[in-house]
Structures are given as structure tokens and as C-alpha cells.
Amino acid sequence: LVLALALALGASLGAAFPHDALKKSCSLSKYQFLEPHELKAVRKMTEQFGSIMGLSDRKCSIRLFRRKWKPVELSLPDRVMLVEAELDLAIAMLRLPADPSFAETRQRPLAFLTQAREDLRGCVAAEAPSHQPSGKLRHWLQKLQMAKETETASCLEATAILHLFQVLEDLRCAAHQEKCT
């Protein structure tokens, strides 16, 4: 009787909580079309940052976002890895100490980007946990690591913030299961 009851309970719980629901899934479809209020918050932040940024920061010569290739040329796992690295940089830079008014303006974009990164990490773990990046992506990741080691924080911050719309476009591209345009 106890065994029959345990089997019945197990079957009903299995139906209530499908096995697929327990497994972390990869769904980036919500990033294919970004919400206007999120885009507006990012635009406001980048404009405010651009207006308060000093002239010395404009001399920053990091060319991380000037690539000879486009994310659409990468495989889906490479696109996801690229955007995860871009988001890591942007989030780290947005967490730097800042003027109080800018600190307030960046809170919404920071929360949005942090959520996107967590969703991407779920995809990397679920879809391609042992994926090795292509040569293009591997070279870019090395360039990013070198910049983190050699460039000033203000230069990295300016690069990350002023290229946030490119990061968002790369996120949109990574959200497409097929090639994006």
C-alpha cells in the first residue's frame, strides 16, 4: 500500500513538474525585440555619460568594438559567448563608483544587462557547456583580456558605455536561433 501510494504521488508530482522544467532552459527570445523603456533608459544613460565624460577619456584608443567580422558570421554558441563577455565588461564598468546623478541613471540599464547576462549564462550551461570559441572569437576574447590588463578604468568604462547599443544589437543577434541580419 505504501509503495503504491509513493508511486502514485511520484507520478502526480512528475506530471505537475515536468522534467524539462527542472532543467535550466535557454530562452533568449525576449531579447529579439527589446522593450522601448529599456532602450530609452540606455539612451539616457549613454547621453548623460557622454556629456559628463572628460576630454582626456575621449583619447582612449581601445578598438574592442571595431572588429573585422560581424557577430552574424559566428555560430550561435559563439554569439552567446561574445555577448556574455561584452555584458561582463559593461556590467563591471557600470558598477564602478560614479557621480550620484549618473549612479542613479545607470541603475535600470545595469539591472537589465545583469538579467540578460544571467539568461545568457543559462544558455551557455544548457546549450554548449564545453563549446570552444572559434578563432575569430578567441582572438577577440584575448584582445578584451589584454585591454582589461593594460587600459585605465576610465578608458574601459568609456568604451563599454559608449558601445552599449552595439552590445544590445549583439544580444538581439544572439537571441536568434538562426542567423540574424
UniProtKB/TrEMBL annotation:
<dbReference type="GO" id="GO:0005125">
    <property type="term" value="F:cytokine activity"/>
</dbReference>
<dbReference type="GO" id="GO:0045087">
    <property type="term" value="P:innate immune response"/>
</dbReference>
<dbReference type="InterPro" id="IPR029177">
    <property type="entry name" value="INF_lambda"/>
</dbReference>
<protein>
    <submittedName>
        <fullName>IFNL3 protein</fullName>
    </submittedName>
</protein>
<dbReference type="GO" id="GO:0050778">
    <property type="term" value="P:positive regulation of immune response"/>
</dbReference>
<dbReference type="GO" id="GO:0007259">
    <property type="term" value="P:cell surface receptor signaling pathway via JAK-STAT"/>
</dbReference>
<keyword id="KW-0202">Cytokine</keyword>
<dbReference type="GO" id="GO:0051607">
    <property type="term" value="P:defense response to virus"/>
</dbReference>
<keyword id="KW-0964">Secreted</keyword>
<keyword id="KW-0051">Antiviral defense</keyword>
<dbReference type="Pfam" id="PF15177">
    <property type="entry name" value="IL28A"/>
</dbReference>
<dbReference type="GO" id="GO:0005615">
    <property type="term" value="C:extracellular space"/>
</dbReference>
<feature type="signal peptide">
    <location>
        <begin position="1"/>
        <end position="16"/>
    </location>
</feature>
<keyword id="KW-0732">Signal</keyword>
<comment type="similarity">
    <text>Belongs to the lambda interferon family.</text>
</comment>
<dbReference type="InterPro" id="IPR038326">
    <property type="entry name" value="IFN-lambda_sf"/>
</dbReference>
